[in-house]
Design a protein that fits this description.
The complex is a heterodimer of chains A (about 900) and B (about 110). Chain A is built from 26 helices and 21 strands. By secondary structure, chain A is α+β, with helices and mostly antiparallel strands. Chain B is of the alpha+beta class and about 110 residues long. Helices cover about 60% and strands about 15% of the residues of chain B. Chain B is built from 5 helices and 3 strands, in the order ααβααββα. In chain B, strands 1-3-2 form a 3-stranded antiparallel sheet. In chain B, a hairpin with a 5-residue loop joins β2 and β3. The chains are: A alpha+beta (about 900), B alpha+beta (about 110). Chains A and B meet through α1, α2 and α3 of A and α3, α4, β2 and β3 of B.
Amino acid sequence: MKKSLRSWLWSVPLEQEVDEELAFHRQMRARERHDAGTDPRVRDTLITIGRKRDREMRLTQWIEDFHKDVGVALRQIRRAPGFTLIAVVTLALGIGANSAIFAVADAVLLKPLPFNDPDRLVMVWEGRTEVERIPANPLNFADWRARNRSFTALAGIVGSGATMTGSDGLPERVAAHAVTTEFFEVLAVRPLAGRTFQAADNHRDADVVVLAEGYWRRRFGADPAVVGRTVPLNNRPFTVIGIVPAHVQLDLPATGTPGAVDLWTVFRIDPDRTLAQRRSHFVQVVGRLKPRVAMDAARADLAAIATDLGREFPGTNAGHGVTIASLHDAIIGSDVRTTTLLVFSVVGVILVICCANVAHLLLSRLSRRSRELAVRSAMGAGRERVIRQLITEMLVLGAGGGLGGLAIGLIILRIAPTVVPSGLIPATIMLAFDSRVAAFCAATACAAAFVCGLFPAWGATSRSPLMAIRNEARTATPAEHTHRRWLVAGEVAAAVILLCGAGLLVRTAMALGNVDAGHGARSALTMVVGAPFNPAGPYGRETSRGQFYEAVEREVESVPGVASVAFGTTLPLGGHWYQQSFEVVGAAPRREADRPAAVYQLVSPSYFEVLEIPVLQGRPFTASDRDGAPQVCVVDEAFVRRFISGRAPIGTRLNVRALAQLPADVEREIVGVVRQVKEQAEETADVPHIYVPLSQNPWWSATLVVRPTGGDPAALAPAVRAAIGRIDKAWVPTLVRTLDDAGRAATSRPRFRAVLVATCAGLSLLLALIGVFGVLAYGVDQRTREFGIRLALGAERREVLRLVLASAGRMIAAGAIAGLMVSALLARTIDTFLFQVEPLDAVTFTVVPALVALAGALAATLPALRAARVDPVVAFRQD
Amino acid sequence: VADKTPNDLLHGSLDALILKTLAGGPRHGYAIARFIEQGFGDVVVVEEGSLYPALYRMERRGWLEAEWGESDLGRRVKVYRLTRQGRAQLAAETTAWRQFAAGVSKILLAQ
C-alpha cells in the first residue's frame, strides 16, 4: 500500500523535497547529455509555491478529517440513542441554567448602563457621619447646581405617584417622577418624538409632561399625535411635550416607587423659600461629570460647597457633607450584585455536576467500545487521532446540549420576571437574550464537551490495542474505576456544598417567616389611598383631606362583611416610610442638624385596635384627638428606651416635625406607649416610632386596613373600592393586597433565594445520586464473576451485600466530608443573606450529611441487592 | 530579425502538454520533460525553470497529485499523476487549443 504523498510531505521538510527532486532532474540531464542549463532561482520559486500548497493541504486535510469524525460521531450517536438523549438533556439543563443566569449577570454586572458615556454619570447625596446617603434638600441641591464647577449638568428627582384621568373620566394611578429640567440632559437622552424639558419650562404657566415609551404604547397606542395634546394629570391640564425611549429608566432604590416610571413632570424649586425649607430631605440627585473631571475632584468640589452651606445655614446644614458614587453602583445595589453572584456560582456547580455525569456515561460507553477503538489504533490511527475522534463525538453532543441549553435559557428568562421578586432587578437593567448570551452558551457548550470528553478519551486510549482486543470481558482497568469513584465523590461534595447553602438560606427564610412583626392581626385587606397631589385643588387644605379619610372610614365600615377599618401611613413590615426629626422638650437643646429622627406614622384612632398592637401604657387615640384638640402622640418601646430615660413617658412632650409642604415643629404630648412593630422582617435593631393622629396631620395618601367579619379578606376588595368611589372618584386605591401578602412581600427576596438554591441543591443531589448509582451498577456488572466465585467458595450473600455497600459508603463519605469542609469555609461568604442563623448552623450541618447518607443508601441498595443475588452458575457461564 | 524558435512558443501551452503527458500514466518530472521534448523531435528544451513551477502550481490547484515512488533505477523520485480535476482541465485546454490553433493556422498559413 503506497503511502499518500500528503502524509509524506508533512514528514519530509519542503526544502528536502525540492532539493531531491531538482537534484534527480539535473543528474538525469547530465547523464543523457541534454545540457539544458540550471536556473538558481527555481529552488526559491518551488519552495514558495510548495509552502502555499502545504498550508492549503493541511487545511483541506483537517476539514476532511473533521467531516469524517463528525460522520463517525453521528453513526455512534444513532447507535446509542439512550446515551445520546441522557447526555444531551443533562448538558442542556446545565448550559441552559447558566446561560439564563449569565444574561442576568451580564446585564447587572458587566454591561454599562444604557446611556451615553455612562462612566460620567454619578449620584450625589447629603451625608452625615452616621448616615452616608441622605436624599438632598431641594435648596441645598439648588446651591450645588449653581456653585459647582465639576458637572456639565446636575438634576434632582422626586419620586411620586400621579393620577391620570382617562377620556372615560376614570382616574388611573401612574408612576411618575418629578425631575428638575436638567434631568434628560444629564442622561443625554434623545426623545423619540417631541422634545424633553428645557430651562424655560421652569417658568411656564402651563404644566408639561414627558411620557415613557412603555406608557405611551400601553396607554396611547403609540400614537405620535399625542405630542402637543393636553392630558389631565392630578386634575390639572398638562401638555405632552415628548416621548423618550424605553431604556430611559432610573430606578432609584430610595424614591419609594420601585419599577418603571410612566411619565416625568417638572420639579420646580421655588427660589425664595424660607430657612425652614432646608429641613426636609427628599431629592435624589444625578449628575454628569465634565470631561476629564475625576469623581474625587467632583467630591472635593461639592464638599467645599457643603462646608460653605454649613457656615451660611448652621441651624440646618452644620455637619452635612456629600456622598458621591457612580450611577451604576448606586442603581445596582449590593443585594442584586451578591444575589446574582450567588446564583451564578450555584448554577456553575450544577454545570460541573452535569459534566461529571456525562463524563461517567461516556466512560461506560467507551469501555464498551474499547475494541472498536483498539481496532482503530491497530489500523494506524495515532492516539491523538483517536482522542480527536472522541472529542468530536463529544462536541456533536455538546452542540446538541448547547442548542437545548439555548432553548431552556430562553424559557427560564421568559418565566423569570414572574418568579423574581419585583424590585430586585432595577428597571434600568434590561434583560435580553442577545448575541452575548448566545456566545456564552456556545462557549459553555464547547468547554463542557471538551471537559467531558478529554478525560474519558485519555483513559480509553491509554491501553495498548493488543490488550483491549484480547480482552473479551470488557473489564475496566482498576485505574479507570478509581477515576470514576473520585468523580462521583466530587459530585457528592458539590451537592453537599449546595445543600449546605440551601439549608442556611431555607433556615433564614423560615426565621424571617416566623418573625413577630408586633401586631396580632392576620386576616385583613389593605390598600393605599392617595389623592392627586395638587395644593391648589379641592384637597389642598389639610382639613378637607382629614374629612375625606373620616368619610371613607365610615363608608367602608358600613360595607357588609367588614368588621373594622383603620388608616395608617404604612403597615408593619411595610418597609420604611418617612422619618421625621424631633426633640424631647426639656432635654438638653441640640442643633437642628443634629436632631434625632423616628419613623413618623399617621394613624386613625382605631389603628392599634384593628391591627392588634397592644397599648402597654396610657391610652390609644380616640375620636376626640382631632384637629383643634390638644396635639398628642403615641410612641413605642424602642422610642422610650432610646430617648426617654429617668421619667414617665406619659405626659412627656415632644417637638415633632410635621409632614407638610412647609414643615414646622408641633409640640405633642405622649399619651400612650405601644408595643414595638417591625418595619422590615430582617431588622435586627428596633426602630423607634412616633404615632400621630391622622386627623392632626392628614397627608396626601394613607394605607387603609379593612378586617372582615370572616372569610377571605381579598373578597372584600370590589365592595371597598366601590365605597371609596362613592366618597370621591379622584382617590384611586393602589397596591390592593392582604396583610399576609404584604408580610410575604417583605420576605420575598430571602424566600426567593432559598427556593432557588434549594431547587438547585435538590437537582444536584439527584444528579450526584445518579452518578453513585451508575458507578455501583457498573462495578457490580464488572465483578459479577468475582462475586460468583466468592459465593461458590462459601461466602454468604450478606458479605457480598456489605462489600458493595461499603464501597458506596466510602465514596459518599469522602465526598460528604470534603463538601462539608468546603461549605464551612464558604458559609461566611453568604453571611449577609443570613438572619438569625449562624454560618456554621448546627442544624444545617447535621441534616445535610444525614440527608446525603440516606439518599446515598437508597441509590446503593439496588446495585447491592443485585450483587447479592448473583447466581454462581450463571456468572461462570457468562464468558 | 531576431531568431524565433519553437521554444519561445512552448511556454503558453506547457500546462496543457504536461496534462496530456500525464494522461498516459504517472511520471516523474524529468520523464515529463523528456516526453515533451521527444514529441517535438528534440527541437525544444523544457527547462526546469518552467517545468517545476508549473508542476507545483498545478499540484496546488488540485490538477495533479504527487507521491514518492521509485525510478527505473531504484531511486526515490516524486511521481506525478493526473487527478479527476486535472482530467477535466485537460479536456478544457484541448478544446481551447483546437479553436485557437484553427484560427491561427487559418490566418497565418493563408495562401
